[in-house]
Amino acid sequence: MNAPEPAIASRVVHGACPHDCPDTCALKITVENERVVKVQGRAEHPSTHGALCTKVSRYPERTYHPERLLQPMKRVSAKNEAPRFEPVSWDQALDDIAARLSAIAARDPQAIQPYSYAGTMGLVQGESMAARFFNALGAARLDRTICASAGAEALNATYGSRVGMHLRFFAESRLILIWGSNSIASNLHFWTYANQAKRNGAKLICIDPRKTETADKCHQHIALLPGTDGALALGLMHELILNRWLDQDYLDRHVEDWHALRERALQWPPERVAEVCGITVEEVRQLARDYGTTVPAAIRLNYGMQRVHGGGNAVRLVALLPCLIGAWKHRAGGLLLSASGWAARVKNTKALERPDLLAGRRPRMVNMSAIGEALLREDSPDFGPRIEALVVYNSNPVAVAPYTAQVLRGFQRPGLFTVVLEHFMTDTADQADYVLPATTQLEHLDVHTSYGHTDVLRNEPAVAPLGEAKPNTQIFRELAARMGLDHPCLRETDEELAAQAFTDAIDQDLLKAQGFVSLDLPEAPFAEGGWPTSTGKVQCISPLYGLPDHVPNRESRLSSPQLAARYPLAMISPPARNFLNSSFVNVKSLRDIEGEPLVEMHADDAAARHLTHGGMVRIFNDRGSLRCRLHISERARPGVVNGLGVWWRKLSPGGENVNAVTHQGLTDIGGGATFYDCLVEIAAA
Ligand SMILES: Nc1nc2c(c(=O)[nH]1)N[C@H]1C(S)=C(S)[C@@H](COP(=O)(O)OP(=O)(O)OC[C@H]3O[C@@H](n4cnc5c(=O)[nH]c(N)nc54)[C@H](O)[C@@H]3O)O[C@H]1N2
Ligand SMILES: Nc1nc2c(c(=O)[nH]1)N[C@H]1C(S)=C(S)[C@@H](COP(=O)(O)OP(=O)(O)OC[C@H]3O[C@@H](n4cnc5c(=O)[nH]c(N)nc54)[C@H](O)[C@@H]3O)O[C@H]1N2
Ligand code: SF4
Ligand SMILES: [Mo]
């Protein structure tokens, strides 16, 4: 008889996807013999409905990756040489880092710069203990603008907060405009609802310069030029006004300064709009007719359209459209860009971040979208001390921040002391003096809100930290202790932090038991107005920014003709489906699906340059250049090329990614990055 198989100790743990994605899925994590063997979507969570994207289905592969950082590493080569690191003990690393930071803080703590984004969106492993640590020090602050600040500020200026429709009711809409979003790639669980609406007979229209996977599945695709959405919105208003497709009752009762906006819109006849947007007059007219005559009509606006100079104004204009037709009267009508204003009502940011630790100090703020510029600044009265130390966590700026050459010059500036908390040796970790191994979502506790739906979630640690990895919170706790920062809140545990994350509106016991809790909100929140502005009405004119208008790109055929003569192609660099920003690029099975960095170009533009499909090309402008594979593709419209991002530089053929050519200009509103406002030329490599 055979000996019995040893029993497998198996359990299921409830988690939450930590990634910067509007879907914030609920995870079912299967652990066998203390190893995660499977990560799936929870069937009980409404929007997750048991399905995850390909990326996070591969979570065990990322977590148990042979290149996972499992020990602290100290740099032993010069910054401008090929990076070489050697392992050191935690004590050695933390003692040295604490001593270096303390010496800088003694001169001026503002010379210490945190840099972080949404590598994890967790409220605990994001800005809780980290923010407390930097606040207690009086370190410089970071304006976290790299993704959504133009759109967020535009919503604040229009609606009073980042609020909108509920995700699930898109399933009941009769018309859905998917505007500046490749939902199938980057907002999969919204697409499920949109697809349901489609099956029930709704019309879906995609407004995007690129013919995306999502555009393929919509009834119509309007391929406007990048950065012209504000003009299109004004043109739609023009048609709604002339054809009397307005809900005058909603405008009268719930919208302020409509007449000023009306005057402006009347300056945008379809002919002018078509010229600016690079589309046909009939496309403008037809879109207006559909939008003005279909009930209920919904807009899924996304961040793709605000990564240009005029991104803030454009979002304000699009956000006003549903008010003109009274779409908000229906639960399946209105608009959704971000739900984070709903989450903000239950999130206890002050308790997590403890701004009171600043004790009246007001450290300077550095805009993360222009980090290259900031790192190169000298001491000056308006800037303050030059940046002497940089502490990076939850972000990979050397890959994702615009204008790589300048970012790198900044990181390699003599005397800069850089610490990076990471899972892997990223392009940014390569520039560090110390790299500290951080835990992943499978190894630490966290709680989450979402910017795409209105549930909060809890993530239980599924397994113990791998190797010597520590949660971000623990690393900041230990640094604080070594630096003599002794406020009791700097010693609180992750469980204590999680318990403070929400107001009493969230039932913590239910959250623990179930793994998620839905916010209690009205189904059609603005059917009777009640906007969270000071007057309760939607604002056409903002006290801060005036009346919105179309603001052209910094770099375009119309706004910078001389530059366009040398660099005639507009380049956008939207995300690749199987990466999440620069995360997952090092996961081989996902990289194999993406293949290699590529740029999509229309056949006419390729013919004009004698370029052939599949050849290696060089994308360049005055800021830099990168090499990649050319795809002659109907996904690109004439005059616009699509360089899919964001590859790791060191895993790209020429050692550069799309950000070699982007610039650090900021959006009109909100100080956001303008990745898609970029002229280039392309030649055979
Ligand atoms: N798979 C995957 N999912 C992701 C991400 C990822 O990297 N990969 N990133 C996550 C993050 S951080 C974010 S912020 C969200 C982003 O979410 P979305 O904004 O929904 O994401 P994208 O897929 O980037 O969609 C942007 C779309 O805008 C288009 N676009 C570019 N310029 C313009 C323009 O001027 N006007 C209009 N109308 N469209 C334009 C692009 O072609 C692209 O298809 O997605 C998240 N989800
Ligand atoms: N050209 C171009 N550039 C872009 C964009 C674009 O569309 N085009 N998109 C922009 C957008 S929308 C965004 S949001 C930014 C995103 O840029 P980032 O926020 O930098 O996002 P990622 O590239 O995903 O890098 C996140 C890093 O955090 C690490 N991380 C994850 N979890 C943890 C943790 O718990 N602890 C620690 N210490 N580290 C962790 C991951 O390993 C990863 O390396 O990129 C921007 N850059
Ligand atoms: S990345 Fe987005 S779609 Fe994928 S599992 Fe996470 S939340 Fe869900
Ligand atoms: Mo983002």
Which ligands accompany this protein?
Answer: ligand MGD, iron/sulfur cluster, molybdenum atom
Span from first to last CA?
67 Å
Q: Order the strands across the largest sheet as they lie in space.
A: 5-4-17-16-15-6
Bulk shape: globular
Question: Could you characterize the architecture of this molecule?
Answer:
There is one protein chain. This protein is of the alpha/beta class. It is 30% helix and 18% strand. It contains 25 helices and 27 strands. A 6-stranded mixed β-sheet has the order 5-4-17-16-15-6, with helices on one face. The protein has a 6-stranded mixed β-barrel with strand order 22-26-23-25-24-27. The protein has a 5-stranded parallel β-sheet with strand order 10-9-8-12-13. Molybdenum atom binds next to loops. One ligand MGD binds at residues 20-21, 147, 179-182, 185-187, 207-210, 212, 226-227, 229, 302-305, 308, 572, 574-575, 577, 579-581, 676.
Task: Name a few traits of the molecule.
685 residues, alpha/beta, Phosphorylase Kinase, domain 1, Rossmann fold, Dimethylsulfoxide Reductase, domain 2, 6-stranded mixed beta sheet, 6-stranded mixed beta barrel, 25 helices, binds ligand MGD, binds iron/sulfur cluster, binds molybdenum atom
Entry summary:
The protein has 685 residues and is an alpha/beta fold. It has four domains: 10-63, Phosphorylase Kinase, domain 1 (2-Layer Sandwich); 73-144 and 344-518, Rossmann fold; 165-337 and 524-539, Dimethylsulfoxide Reductase, domain 2; 561-684, Barwin-like endoglucanases, CATH 2.40.40.20.
Task: Outline the fold blueprint.
Elements: E1 10-16, E2 26-32, E3 35-41, H1 54-57, H2 59-63, E4 73-75, E5 85-87, H3 90-107, E6 112-116, H4 129-137, E7 141-143, H5 149-159, E8 175-179, H6 183-186, H7 188-199, E9 203-207, H8 213-217, E10 220-222, H9 229-242, H10 248-254, E11 255-256, H11 258-265, H12 270-277, H13 281-293, E12 297-301, H14 311-324, E13 334-336, H15 340-344, H16 349-353, E14 365-367, H17 371-375, E15 389-393, H18 397-400, H19 404-411, E16 417-422, E17 434-437, E18 446-448, E19 455-459, H20 472-482, H21 494-500, H22 508-514, E20 516-518, E21 538-539, H23 561-566, E22 569-572, H24 588-594, E23 598-601, H25 603-608, E24 616-621, E25 624-632, E26 640-643, E27 679-684
Parallel strand pairs: 6-15, 7-14, 8-9, 8-12, 9-10, 11-21, 12-13, 15-16, 16-17, 22-26, 23-25
Antiparallel strand pairs: 1-2, 2-3, 4-5, 4-17, 18-19, 19-20, 22-27, 23-26, 24-25, 24-27
The chain binds ligand MGD (2 copies), iron/sulfur cluster (SF4) and molybdenum atom.
